[in-house]
Amino acid sequence: MAYTMAPTVYLSCLLALLVAGLAQDIKDSLWEKDLDPDLLKLKQVFELFRAQYDRSYSNPKEYARRLEIFAHNLAQARKMEAEDLGTAEFGMTPFSDLTEEEFEQLHGHQKITPGETPGVGIKVGSEVMVESVPPSCDWRKLKGVKSPIKQQGNCNCCWAMAAAGNIEALWCIRYNRSVQVSVQELLDCNRCGDGCKGGFVWDAFITVLNNSGLASEKDYPFRGSLKRHKCLANNYKKVAWIQDFIMLQNNEQTIAQYLATHGPITVTINMKLLQQYKKGVIKATPATCDPYLVNHSVLLVGFGKTNSTERRRAKGGHSRLHPHRPIPYWILKNSWGAEWGEEGYFRLHRGSNTCGITKFPLTARVDLQGKKAPVSCPR
């Protein structure tokens, strides 16, 4: 318990230290005999971080490098919080000792550059009519839909985990059957053969179609190593399958309406701000989170608006947001474990294409012909 509570206490001290610029040139001064008291506080916070997230480093030089990165990241977190237009809070996370480049390499997938489209024939969901959108939707409230938060670790498989989550949710909604499908099968049998080296959601769906379904997570469990594994798709019984998949129009009203009437969908976003994210609604500008450079796939499970009590506090305890101005948001399920963010979830502002959420909204379709019963998202 001490390790979960103490970082919050010391974080305020560290942020003050960073603001004053006292943590600059840490690498050069860390090993001097007469350490500044504030640097001792920084080391104390860093030790708490290491204990909480089980970090160890090979030698003193690497320790000093990670400490410098840690200080830089917390300074960046404070800057992000000052720039954010929503209620988001940024600070110490499981990724606070990684550079931005390392974080991107380990936890996203390759960037989809401007103008690039999936290299497969995907049906655009033009048949989806924008009808009235309910004020809120949260598929987690429907029994069986809320599956455990996945942990991709150092495997670049967010694309596979998002696709698996999409299929699991749709099967539960349509057929009242809770299933957990094999992410490892998607990695081993991916048509591009990349496994933990990366991929895209449409690759996962094509793999499911090619294999006529997916085995269960229990039969074909996640290993997640960078080592290539043989495809074992034919060794196990299929527990879920799809008819096809579509890409929705890049319109947030269309996405909300489809989400509320069909179920969770996958989206691919720019994950730049997620490394330091703790909680709240991220409302970024294109300058702080480029909507064209998307590099991380997640599952969109709902939407809503903040209430008057949810507003970030500025220095001196004053409210940063007007108490009567709710912020519309999306609810997204990540694959970085339940200790990250809001118990594994996070929220993005809805209505401004924050971090490129409208770029590639994809979903499988599991309806059998003649069995398209209407569904309704819990509010």
Automatic annotation (TrEMBL):
Q: Which Pfam families match?
A: Inhibitor_I29 (PF08246), Peptidase_C1 (PF00112)
- Residues annotated as domain Cathepsin propeptide inhibitor: 46-103
- Can you name this protein? Cathepsin W
- What keywords does the record list, in alphabetical order? Disulfide bond, Endoplasmic reticulum, Glycoprotein, Hydrolase, Protease, Signal, Thiol protease, Zymogen
Q: Does the keyword Nucleus apply?
A: no
The family assignment reads: Belongs to the peptidase C1 family.
Gene Ontology cellular component annotations, sorted alphabetically: endoplasmic reticulum
